[in-house]
Each structure stands twice: as C-alpha cells, then as structure tokens.
Amino acid sequence: MKIITLGTSHGDPTASRYNSSTLLECNGAYYLLDAGAPVAASLIRRGIDISSLRGIFLTHMHEDHFGGLSGLLKHLTKYPPSSPVPVYLPEDAGEAFKSLLAVSHRPLSDEAATFKLLKKGLVYEDGNLTIEAIPTRHAENEGRNFPSFGFSIHSKSGKHYLHTGDLKHDFSDFPGEYCTPDTVCVCELTHYPWSCAEPVLKNIKLTRMIFSHIGNQWKSGTVFDLPYDNIIAEDGDEFKL
Ligand SMILES: [Zn+2]
Ligand SMILES: [Zn+2]
Questions:
Q1: Among 184, 185, 179, which residue's Cα sits nearest to residue 203?
Q2: CA of 162 to the centre of ligand 1 (A)
Q3: Does the CA dihedral 70-73-163-174 come out positive or negative?
Q4: pTM above threshold 0.90
Q5: For 126-136, what is each residue's pLDDT tens digit?
Q6: Which numbered ligand comes closest to the C-alpha of 17?
Q7: Predicted confidence (pLDDT) per residue in 219-233, tens digit
Q8: Cα(21) to centroid of ligand 1, in Å?
Q9: How confident is the model at residue 49 (pLDDT cuts 50, 70, 90)?
Q10: Which listed ligand is nearest to 62 at the C-alpha?
Q11: Which one of the ligands is nearest to 7 CA?
Q12: Which alpha helices (DSSP H) does the chain contain, by range?
C-alpha cells in the first residue's frame, strides 16, 4: 500500500502546493481521495492511467477538494474505462457535474462514471481493500450543516490507513477512535489551532502521522513533539505502508 500526496494545500493553491488530492495505491490498483485541481494533470504526469482508477472518493463539497473532478470525468468520457468508475460524493451533486460536462460539449457518458452517495459505514470493498466513511463536522466551521467524511481504509493484507479530511476548528471530530499502533494517518493541518490538536494527538497511538492540507502558518520540515513519526507532506511525496 502506498499513499501519494498529489496536492497538499489548504483552501487555495500556493506557489508550491496544489489543491487537495491523495492517491492510494494497493496491489497495483489506484484509488483517489479528493479531486482538487489540477488532479488530472498530476495523475498524467505520474504516468497513472485515469481510466484505471478503481474509485474516486470526495470528503466534502468544497471547491479545493472537488475542483479537478470535471477534468477527470471529461477524461473518462473521452477514454472510457473497462467499467464505469464509481465516484462517491458526500452530497447529491452528480447532476451538477453532468451539467458542467454538458456545457463543455462533451456530455458525461454512462460508460465513464457512476455517482454514488456516501453514507456512514462501509461504502466500498474489492479484492484489495475496504473503505469505511466516517462522518465529521467540518461544516460547523461555517455555521452550516452539510456532510463531510473521513475514511478508514483496511487493505486485505492488514494495513490500515486513516484519512481525516477537513475537520472542525476545535478538533473535536478527529476520528481518534480509529487509530491503532499500526495506523498511518493523513490529517489536515489548517482548520484548527495547534493548542486544540496537541492534547488529542499526544494521546493516540499511530505508526505515522502525515500532515496534509497545510495552512500558510506552517513551515515545511516542521516535526511536532508527538509520540510517533510525523511529517508535513509536500506535493508528490510517497509514503509506503
Ligand atoms: Zn479544504
Ligand atoms: Zn473544507
């Protein structure tokens, strides 16, 4: 299993960071978590065949997490996969993406992708891994109530990857109950003060914490005083589990 942080920025792209997307490789198969721009180009530059994606999973409907999805859908329509790629959305927004492709004069084909609605619990399973969606409360940062999710991913060979997605400003929705000493976690590092996160993070056990979705206040290379290996990810970093 391998995690590749394609885009590690916070809500805006920066001079060195693209918007959020993380690629997961498991037994030669690829899964995409969030689709911030310019994810199609990032995949092509790495030699990843977009039509081979097993699934696309969006944590929440903020533009920095879905802005590259129309490019992926266009590519899948132009170069159809052997079976439609499932696109898991946290909200019922499939028609909006279909409209976007229609105005670009390349309507989404049925062979390209199918939209599925995320809900709490096991949402995906194949011969390689299982993906469980964990509700978070990111929207409360804006006084809103739209759904957001993290993902708990178990490979059939026993590896565990926890992906938090964006969180609430008080860090109270960090899914610590999913952490085990064997877990590798990708956690966002933008939407809360460190004073809220530190006591929570010091009391969990992990193999490694990879911080992504990096706010401007953080310097690359910072290592936190936590009881496990931790790193601030850069675009294009690869982490073996
Ligand atoms: Zn975000
Ligand atoms: Zn967000």
A1: 179
A2: 17
A3: positive
A4: yes
A5: 999 999 999 99
A6: 1
A7: 999 999 999 999 999
A8: 10
A9: very high
A10: 2
A11: 1
A12: 39-45, 63-66, 69-78, 94-103, 194-201
